[in-house]
Amino acid sequence: MNDQTEILSGDLVITSCGLQLRWQQSSLQAGWKLPGDWLVPEVAETTRARVRGDELQNVARRLGASRAYHGVGVRETMMDLRAFYTVADLPPDDSSMLALVEGWTAEIERLEPLSCTDVRTGLATFAHFERLIYDVAVSGSRAQQAQTIASLHLDWSDQGHRLGWDLLADVGNICSEELATINVSAAYHRGSIHAIMERTTQSYEALFRCRERLDALTRWPSSATTVDFEPVPTTRADFTKTTAALRTRRAA
Which has the closest alpha carbon to 120: 179, 171, 194? Predict the structure, then answer.
């Protein structure tokens, strides 16, 4: 993009694209959890408003709503806007921060109780599952070694058509029933079910009972549900790599 709009920051002349990059770097350094979910359209809207000298309250409100929609907590959302103030050479702006929180709160109220739930299956959304992985990954607990990320891949096809809502509902019911016996929350994403579970006999038995019941759903005898296991990441780099691989595994 040919970005001609710019501001003066100290001895530097910064375009809105340059400001966006500095903002992202500052936010990551301040503790933004998931690098892949930082860039949303409202980010570019905010930087453009800054270089044009526009009032920031309305864009901050929209940014807050966007962060809530994508599963970002209010503390992380506020930290991110403070990082923006720093790189944009702006003093703390209580009015814009308040508007940010108002936008976040309004969106959370609109989304509840579905903000963490995939409406087709009743299982967790992948965004929620990513944050569960992150919490385990950064916990530093010895329990990490006793856990694994298990994935059930629905290698089904109906001449290339996506799975219907009725079939997805059955998938969700089966997973909820079987994995609830080991107190595990599962997430559905693009034809796969993912869960963080303990490496125990009970857990593996529940997982493979789930697979057997899922296979019984399909009308295509040659199809099968495959199982993969991934170690729980222990660093931020491993977390990013693991979640990216899970997110792009397949579509169904």
Answer: 171
Q: 126-137 vs 236-247: helix axis angle to the nearest 10? A: 160
For 79-94, the pLDDT digits (tens) are 999 999 999 888 888 8
User: Between the CA of residue 120 and those of 40, 69, 162, 167, what are the distances in Å?
Assistant: 25, 18, 12, 9
The token pair that represents 30 in the structure block: 């301040």
The residue among 70, 68, 50 whose CA lies nearest residue 8 is: 50
Give the Cα-Cα-Cα angle 201, 205, 211 (nearest 5 degrees): 150
Q: Between the CA of residue 194 and those of 1, 54, 240, 246, what are the distances in Å?
A: 38, 44, 16, 8
Q: What does the angle CA 38 – CA 44 – CA 48 come to, to the nearest 5 degrees?
A: 150
Taking the model in full, what pTM does it have?
0.54
178-216 CB burial, b ≥16 within 10 A, e <16: bbeebebbbbbbebbbbbbbeeeeebbebbeebbebbbe
HSE-CB at 18 with a 13 A cutoff on CA atoms is 14
Q: Write out the two tokens for 238.
A: 């491993």
What is the DSSP-derived secondary structure letter of residue 161? Answer: B
* pLDDT (tens digit per residue) in 38-80: 999 999 999 999 888 888 999 999 999 999 888 787 888 999 9
Q: Are 186 and 193 spatial neighbours (Cβ–Cβ below 8 Å)?
A: yes
